[in-house]
Structure formats: structure tokens, C-alpha cells
Amino acid sequence: MATDNNTGFHQEYTEAKQIPYIQVQYIGFGAAGVVDEVRKEGRAYARKIITLERDRQDREVQIRQIEQEVNILRGLQHKHLVRFVATYLFRSNYAIIVDPLADRNLEDHLKDAIQHDEAREQISAWFRCLTNGLGYLHESGIRHRDIKPSNILVKDGTVLFADFNISTRSLKRTVPTTMVGRPRARTPEYCAPEVEEGHTRGLSADIFSLGAVFLEMLTVYSNPGTLEELRSRLQTDVSRSFAKN
């Protein structure tokens, strides 16, 4: 069997006992599946498990979309992006293994930083980290398309972009916010105005979303007690939105 080295690999298993990754604990939901902590040979990883559709045609479309994320992750090497390790298929579950296993996400860190000075002081270094990470993505021909605090991981005092299942290659064209066979990938709170209105989006949509995240980071860093006030001012009749304010 192949080993999980820097290049990554894919395996298909017919029995649960063949799977070398042992579940440690459930973490939560990602954009397209359940996320948990697993270990292999004493090392911890994050695993996203996606339940495949029952309908054959829908399943094939879904697998193509998953493979798009895998192909994107496989080619990325940057200290502020998660690293692809491996994938495997077991029955109706498609698993993606990534490294590192995060300590928390940025959303949880911002909440903690409101009460704790040490967590708040870490934020000041992360503006450059995230700018460099997004710059690398764009230079690689990739749009993230769903930047938000919960899709930014915190590990050992630094930050990493994660969750690329809705990323898209090619800098030379914009992409409609609604495409046949795929969901409209956006989080209303942080999406750009053109995305909110259903128009095509380019690199500027990522930049707007990161700017919205930066505003929340800056608010917590400079005046932590006002984050909820900021979010309440952005509240619309339906949801919180930077694009509409």
C-alpha cells in the first residue's frame, strides 16, 4: 500500500479494518462534510468525510467536484495553507486527509481574544500571513470563494486557509455565482456585493471577503468589546452582511 508522503495518494477500501486512520474525536461540519480528528502511526490529521449521493449520475458529478478540490490541494505548498495528505473511498464515503490538525479556527480564536490578552496579541501578526496566503492562491490561479473566520485555521500561533472544495482555477475569467451541477458557493455575511447580487465574480470577491475578516480581526485587536456591536450593525432582515452595509 502507498504511504502518505508529500505527494499524497488515493486508496479504495472494501472493509473498515483496512482503513489506517483511527478516529479520535469528532470536530464538526465543513462546507461539504463531517470533519474529525484521526491518527495514523501516532500522528494526528484532520479528516473530512463526504457522504456520496445515492443516484449514480449525481454521485459522478459529486466525485468530480471532490476530485477538483483534491487536485487543487495536491498542488499547493504554502505555510499558510493546509497540506493535502491522502484520500480514500469506503462504501459511500469519500475521505480527504489534510495536515495539520488545527488547534481551533479563527472564529473561535476571536471569541477567546475578547477575554484574553494573549490571544488578542497574536492577531496583529496574522494580517500579513493571510495576505500572503491569499496572494499565493491567486498567483496559483485559484480563487477560494468562501473566505470566512471558520475557514481559517489556527495552529501553533499561526493561521492557515482551509476548505477548498469550492475553489476554482483560472485567473483569466470570472465565474458565475451559480453554475450547473454545483451549489452557489458563498457565505452571506462575508461575500462580496457582486456575489450577493448573483453576478460573475473574480479575484476581487476573495479580497472583499478577506477585508471583511480583517475588519473583525482589527475590531477585536483594537477594541474587543465592540465585535458584537459591529456584527449587530451589519444585521439585515435575513442575515448579517458586510456587502449590504
TrEMBL record:
Pfam families: Pkinase (PF00069). Gene3D superfamilies: Transferase(Phosphotransferase) domain 1. One of its GO terms (biological process) is negative regulation of G2/MI transition of meiotic cell cycle. Residues 21-245 form the Protein kinase domain. It comes from the Eukaryota. GO terms for cellular component: cytoplasm; nucleus. InterPro entries: CC_SR_Kinase, Kinase-like_dom_sf, Prot_kinase_dom, Ser/Thr_kinase_AS. Keywords: ATP-binding, Kinase, Nucleotide-binding, Transferase. One of its GO terms (molecular function) is ATP binding. The keyword Kinase applies. PANTHER family: EUKARYOTIC TRANSLATION INITIATION FACTOR 2-ALPHA KINASE EIF2-ALPHA KINASE -RELATED, MITOSIS INHIBITOR PROTEIN KINASE MIK1. Belongs to the protein kinase superfamily. Ser/Thr protein kinase family. GCN2 subfamily. This is Kinase-like protein.
